[in-house]
Amino acid sequence: MSSRLVAVAEAVKDLLNGTAWSKTFTATRTAVPKYEAKTGTLDVRVRPVGSATIGRVGREKLDRDYTVDVVIAQKIAIADNGVTDLLIDLAEEIADWFEADDNGKPRTIQASPKAWITKVASMPSAYAWEYAVEDQFVAVRRLTIKCVE
Questions:
Q1: Model-level pTM?
Q2: Out of 3.30.2000, 1.50.10, 3.55.50, 3.30.390, which CATH number does the structure's domain 4-148 have?
């Protein structure tokens, strides 16, 4: 049986793969932070990072926050703004999509029990050192997902 953190990360991966994006990709889930994308290939990975118990809700339930990173990476031969701008746009498109649904409500994650996204943060490359590989564009969007269980 998988942990709730793994189940939440898998649900995020499934949401990414079930949505039409401006660039085509198939997201995968990995626990390994440092990996190298193939040249010219867009690599989107979902990485379970951790969880924190916030407190009790009633007598029987816990309020937990799960942290999941969405990593957009592409190895590029030279720093080409035409390529990197499109990747930055994709990272922002993904972040915007996760921030709210079409009705402006928090995006839900169909993990059991139901969970919803409370925060989407952009991690600058300088702070996302665990994902850094030479000659590789990397954008990280860190999702905080609330789950009452």
A1: 0.84
A2: 3.30.2000
